[in-house]
């Protein structure tokens, strides 16, 4: 872990700069036990922390956890989970109308900021609970502005960077299904940003070939930092940039710095305890991809998953803000400053030393200042690039009724 100690002068400059720029976090998870947006609670995000970190806006994620692909009960449970998160997130704006607002465009975001209100962008992750294209329309009508097909496990729309045979049934690293390909066109027509984080390489390639407008990877890190499929290769970073998109660098320590060898010892013991073949590389433990898990029942899988996260020891710090900005600099070197942004993954990731919640945002800006980034460049990273892509996506939308007859998922 690199040392990180921001100077008082750089922190003061960061605070002054944040008073003048729009800062956007492209991916924040909201837990189901979220205590209320107005309280300075134990989580990584709430309105007091956003104010302390001078954050203008965030894409708050309506996600569903891993349920078996194609399982009717799992799809129902996932859909209910997404509706609960939607109710929680929209409740922030409902309960604190003078402090927060749901925004549907860059112009609305700018207006909310001018009014002194925190701007909430609605984002949805994991399309498996969606029954078909009509559900894309329905979520758009509810205000969703960004949607990613994948989370853990391959699903009926797209293969994932982490196949998880228990969830997706196989280790396939294929691309989009016919439904997923139709979904790309529908999202383009609706003016919804396509989030390519957590996709297989083939799915990403399919989307870049099909999409009429740029895409966003809302929370991703460079594979050059940690060699896992969940991270983006330099080739993928360039491809997203060449398509006009943006990679929002994730603040998840394990994707920025490889965990220590003792982690592999613990994980090897866990794999052996459950009769799984232990990988040889530590980075290969970052996904649970043994085909034997496809036959496990839910109780066994969830028990294993709990032990797995204990063994990973995600709360032990292994990366700092300095390591995080190293990752930003790598993506800039590969993709260019116009194609990089910030996406913390707070409340799902463990953060890094110096950036444990949105209240610590000024530390990131102070490190950028210390490394010589200009005000204009910092404004790009903290939201300018994201806003450009969002506007391009909206400009590329087609009027309602111009898309083909809805395709039902089978």
TrEMBL record:
InterPro entries: Metal_Hydrolase (IPR032466), Pept_M19 (IPR008257)
An example molecular function term from Gene Ontology annotations: metallodipeptidase activity
Gene Ontology BP term (one): proteolysis
UniProt cross-references to Pfam families, sorted A to Z: Peptidase_M19
Superkingdom, natural source: Bacteria
Record-linked PANTHER family: DIPEPTIDASE (PTHR10443:SF12), MICROSOMAL DIPEPTIDASE (PTHR10443)
Protein name as annotated: Peptidase M19 renal dipeptidase
Record organism: Sphingobium chlorophenolicum L-1
